[in-house]
Amino acid sequence: MAKKEKSEYLIQAVSHALDLLEQFHGETDELGVTELSKRLKLHKNNVFRLLATLESRGYIEQNRVTENYRLGLKTLELGQTFIKQMGLLRQSKPVIEDLVKTCNETTYVAVLKDFHIIYLDSVETTMTVRVVPRVGSRLPAYCTAAGKVQIAYMSGEEIDQYLPNRELEKFTANTISDREVLKKQLAEIAEQGYAIDNEELDEGVKCVSAPIRDYTRRIIGAVSISGPSMRFSDERIAKELLPLAIKAAEEISTKLGYQK
To answer: Helices 242-255 and 88-103, interaxial angle, to 10°?
Structure first.
């Protein structure tokens, strides 16, 4: 027996109901029965029955003043559920696992919190010499690639609020402790779309990072690749690691609804 195409199982009434919901997009916030009938090429009575059904379930509501219809709160609830289920950790895990398989260096997903970064998840390299994962740790943002790549896209006022007026604490000889020098580097990071930690937090450890954006285009985290400086030559960073980090961040962003 031949397997039926999924299109043969479509329920016309459900399809019409979804067509109706999809009419409310862009600047269109309210529509009347007549306009919906024209758009859907359905009889007014059929449109009214669809509206009544959707209204009873909270997906459509009627403006009692204009008697037109608009989306109901149930549609918002569904959208929020989708966003929650398509969350950062869920979407990033398979991406960073594949990333480690490709470059065999420890990879992180980190978020910014109170001018510190918090590593939410990591996948380790199989190499004997490796960077110890710091999942859950709070690390200063200004001397980490994941932190700098998120701070860089803040406004000047926000950066000034975040950065202390005093000289920044130095963790290594490479830590940028001067506020103005750091602000200049952050501007460069925002322009190029990635950040590098050149042994700025830990001696002998380098890191590259790219930003993750959500469906609102807001930066909500970063992907980082970290490892011993002996394996992170300038050439490898430029030709292999940075392109991989940027690609991974873009893939996660796309999964979260981001569109360029």
So the answer is: 150
CA gap 208, 225 in Å, rounded: 5
* Neighbouring residues of 220: CB distance < 8 A, sequence distance ≥ 6: 88, 111, 212, 213, 214, 256
Average confidence (pLDDT) per 10 residues, the chain, 260 residues: 66 94 82 95 95 95 93 82 68 93 93 85 82 75 94 87 78 92 94 95 95 90 94 95 96 89
Scanning the structure block, which residue is given the tokens 């011993």?
228
- Using alpha carbons, select from 211, 222, 212, 215 the residue that is nearest to residue 82: 215
Output 9-12 pairs: Cβ under 8 A, ≥24 positions apart: none
Q: Identity (one letter) of the amino acid at 4?
A: K
Q: Give yes or no for a contact between 245 and 225, defined as CB atoms under 8 angstroms apart.
A: yes
HEC readout, 150-186: HHCCCCHHHHHHHCCCCCCCCCCCCCCCCHHHHHHHH
User: Which phi and psi angles does 104 have, rounded to 5°?
Assistant: 55, 45
